[in-house]
């Protein structure tokens, strides 16, 4: 693919990813009010931290594995990542259910 085509695809994706929260801002602030919007912002600050602990940069690990070893056993690495994410997610849900009771 050409550099112009790749750059335009990247630009469109980035602009759409940045425009959606910006366009939702008036709607969310009106519907949630000051207190609800503050609570939403509070939870949005913790979300990247949870992604770090749950995901453990598995996308970077897959990219590194592919760069070093090629396609050999790449499917195993991806399946292991899915199994890890599902098990950590299941433990997190179990923790939330136990604390809710």
From TrEMBL:
Membrane topology (UniProt): Multi-pass membrane protein
InterPro entries named among the record's database cross-references: Polysacc_synth, PolySynth_Transporter
GO cellular component terms, semicolon-separated: membrane
Pfam family, one: Polysacc_synt
Location (main, coarse): membrane
Compartments, as annotated in UniProt: Membrane
Ranges annotated as spanning the membrane: 49-69, 81-100
Keywords: Membrane, Transmembrane, Transmembrane helix
PANTHER family: LOCUS PUTATIVE PROTEIN 1-RELATED
Name used for this protein in its record: Lipopolysaccharide biosynthesis protein
């Amino acid at each position: 693919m050409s550099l112009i085509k790749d750059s335009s695809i990247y630009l469109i994706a980035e602009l759409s990813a940045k425009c959606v929260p910006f366009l939702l801002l008036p709607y969310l602030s009106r519907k949630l009010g000051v207190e609800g919007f503050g609570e939403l912002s509070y939870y949005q600050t913790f979300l990247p931290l949870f992604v770090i602990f749950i995901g453990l940069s598995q996308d970077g690990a897959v990219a590194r594995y592919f760069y070093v070893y090629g396609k050999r056993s790449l499917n195993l690495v991806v399946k292991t990542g899915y199994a890890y994410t599902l098990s950590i997610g299941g433990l997190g849900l179990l923790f939330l259910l136990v604390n809710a009771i």
